[in-house]
Amino acid sequence: MILARLLAPVSVAAAFAATSAYFPSRCASPTAPQVDAPVRKAAPFVEKVTGLSFSDTLLTCGKSLKFVGAGDRKKAIIGPIAVNVYAVGLYVDEAAAKATAAKTPDAAQKLLVDSTFTKALKIVMARSVSSQKIGDALLEQIEPCVKGTDAPLDKFKSFFQDMQQLDKENEIIFTASGDTLAVQGPSGSQEFASKHLCNAMFDIYLGDDPVSTNGKKSMLDGFVALCLSG
């Protein structure tokens, strides 16, 4: 009887199921672990005159800001001969910028100088320069804009006098948020409570007589493009 059971016919399906349990198919797909796709970051923007780079985002004063444009700052030394001093880039609060719905460079210019949403200018040095010289050059542009106001110019000047030498690729970040201008350098930072100083700082690069014409164009065009991107 035992022999009869051993010799009894077995269906093909049953035989295949039995052998599959011991010899799994080579084509069977093992369960692969789920791996998150890497987040691709935008390539840094390279300012074409100085070759200095600006990241797509900037974390400053606890906020992540979006890059919109940059240009170079030259200094004349003899006649038509000028040297590159630094590159300057503009970063803005992306959501707040889009909410302005600026559609033209003229509209963008007024918004960027006068608005209170968070924005920042990042200077990247193209050569070694005394920090006091940079501070004095900025004050020369700021003073006419804040004459007769409570802008703390002496405090601003002292900050740069106390700063260490600025070497190539050192950075200075000017972040305006509301009525406060925060300045961060290689060796320290300080805040200045003055709406007039905030406006004057951005007027240097975005006003009617900018120190970097290609910088102003790049920043305004980039800001409008960001606003129109939806």
Descriptive account of the structure:
There is one protein chain. The protein is α+β, with helices and mostly antiparallel strands and about 230 residues long. Helix content is about 40%, strand content about 25%. The protein contains 8 helices and 9 strands. The protein has a 7-stranded antiparallel sheet. Strand 4 (about 65-80) and strand 5 (about 80-90) form a beta hairpin. Helix 4 (about 105-115) packs across helix 8 (about 215-230). The longest helix is centred in the middle third of the chain and has 16 residues, at about 130-145. Mean pLDDT is about 85; it is low at about 1-10 and about 10-30.
Write a brief structural summary.
It contains 8 helices and 9 strands. With 230 residues, the chain is α+β, with helices and mostly antiparallel strands.
Helix count, DSSP H or I runs of 4 or more residues = 8
Distance between the termini: 82 Å
Shape: globular
Strand arrangement in the largest pleated sheet: 3-4-5-6-7-8-9
> What is the gyration radius calculated from CA atoms?
30 Å
Mean pLDDT over the residues: 86
Q: Strand share of the residues?
A: 25-35%
Helix content class: 25-40%
Low-confidence stretches: 1-8, 10-30
Describe the sheet with the most strands.
7 strands, antiparallel
